[in-house]
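Researcher: I'd like a candidate sequence for this fold, 427 residues long. If you have to choose between options at a position, lean toward the conservative one.
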């Protein structure tokens, strides 16, 4: 079993991501420790967050106050709900969080059974709980849980393989071909994407892009694919490599077959609605690109924006690292197409979009009247006591692949300069 511990300053984001799974019937709350109970057993994000509020009020200095932990048994392990509850309690107790409020979510939208735990790392007196030797302690607890519950052990070899798979290409480090190979040979085993554009959006996180090439061979038109390394700014940083160097699965014919398979797999995927809701909420609650990207990054969602030379947005792609799926904006919804974002961010025309999925219990009674009404954006401001996290790994701290974060301030400044230049050219 592998435990992944993430820290961020966004309690609302961690709770909202997991509660969306519950509301869309792709998850359930298995266990709640020292949480305020509701009369009907159903929760909204605000009701869950209320249990943590006194702890965060007692300590406003700790920026990364929120814990988001996932416990991931081997895909072949069969773990019952009772066993998951017992494992979560023991893990939190031995890691020093047994007396903290925490809530355990089980995710059921993918074949691999796993749980997420959300808590805070400051106690009720405002003291930060020690995280010394945390990784080593976590590994020891996982080994103990494997032995106790008869789980398949996670070997060091598996850890090394996973570390190798998801690392951005560093062209300065040399052996670029091997670096690209470690990504493209394994990426389809983890992520689903339906077009070459979606594939390129995913590859861009790892400093790689592809380009179609055409040529004639023995009188027949042939198409091929080149893989090109990029630098930190997304610019070409070396010579291209033929797809054949990475095996037939990296070539265009194999990828087109994979696109078709993913299209079938994702056709009725429940994760589409979850992602659409998260994107819609972020669009309605932010005013610019920087804030939009930050809010989604805190939920494990990357946003790749494609612009032409004049600064016009012509492509929006969302990479959901939770469900391991890539979606073009217009494929999610016509209201989330590139034109909508271009009108909003470039022309200040706010889009008219439908209300997203409500983050509230499906059943409510008058007994819950003493609990706060759902006000996600005010709650978000109240509970976020430090700076927003700027990168994917910072946002969910290890729940995502080792992809690079983005400098949102620099990107926002560059976009504003492009607008000024465009206006100046009209004079």
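Model: Candidate sequence:
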């Amino acid at each position: 079993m592998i435990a992944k511990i993430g820290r961020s300053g966004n309690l609302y984001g961690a709770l909202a991501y997991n509660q969306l799974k519950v509301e869309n019937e792709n998850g359930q709350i298995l266990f709640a420790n020292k949480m305020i109970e509701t009369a009907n057993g159903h929760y909204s994000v605000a009701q869950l967050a209320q249990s943590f509020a006194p702890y965060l009020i007692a300590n406003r200095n700790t920026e990364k106050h929120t814990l988001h932990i996932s416990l991931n048994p081997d895909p072949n392990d069969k773990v019952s709900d009772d066993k998951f509850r017992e494992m979560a309690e023991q893990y939190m107790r031995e890691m020093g969080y047994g007396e903290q409020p925490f809530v355990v979510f089980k995710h059921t939208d993918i074949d691999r059974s796993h749980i997420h735990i959300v808590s805070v790392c400051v106690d009720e007196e405002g003291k930060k709980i020690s995280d010394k030797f945390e990784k080593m302690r976590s590994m020891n607890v996982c080994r103990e849980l494997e032995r106790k519950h008869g789980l398949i052990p996670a070997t060091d070899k598996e850890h090394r393989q996973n570390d190798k798979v998801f690392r951005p290409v560093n062209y300065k480090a040399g052996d670029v071909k091997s670096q690209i190979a470690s990504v493209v040979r394994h990426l389809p085993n983890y992520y689903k994407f339906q077009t070459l554009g979606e594939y390129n959006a995913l590859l861009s996180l790892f400093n790689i892009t592809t380009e179609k090439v055409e040529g004639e061979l023995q009188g027949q038109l042939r198409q091929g694919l080149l893989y090109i390394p990029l630098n930190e700014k997304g610019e070409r940083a070396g010579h291209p490599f033929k797809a054949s160097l990475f095996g037939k699965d990296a070539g265009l014919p194999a990828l087109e077959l994979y696109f078709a398979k993913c299209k079938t797999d994702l056709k009725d995927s429940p994760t589409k609605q979850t992602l659409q809701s998260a994107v819609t909420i972020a669009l309605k609650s932010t005013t610019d690109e920087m804030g939009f990207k930050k809010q989604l990054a805190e939920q494990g969602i990357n946003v790749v924006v494609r612009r032409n030379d004049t600064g016009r947005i012509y492509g929006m792609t969302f990479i959901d690292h939770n469900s391991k799926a890539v979606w073009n904006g217009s494929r999610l919804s016509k209201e989330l197409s590139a034109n909508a974002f271009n009108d909003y961010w470039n022309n200040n025309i706010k889009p008219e979009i439908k209300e997203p999925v409500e983050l509230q219990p499906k059943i409510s009674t008058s007994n819950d009247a003493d609990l706060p009404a759902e006000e996600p954006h005010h709650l978000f401001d109240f509970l976020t006591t430090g700076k927003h996290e700027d990168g994917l790994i910072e946002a969910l701290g290890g729940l995502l692949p080792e992809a690079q974060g983005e400098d949102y301030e620099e990107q926002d400044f560059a976009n504003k300069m492009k607008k000024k230049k465009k206006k100046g050219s009209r004079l």
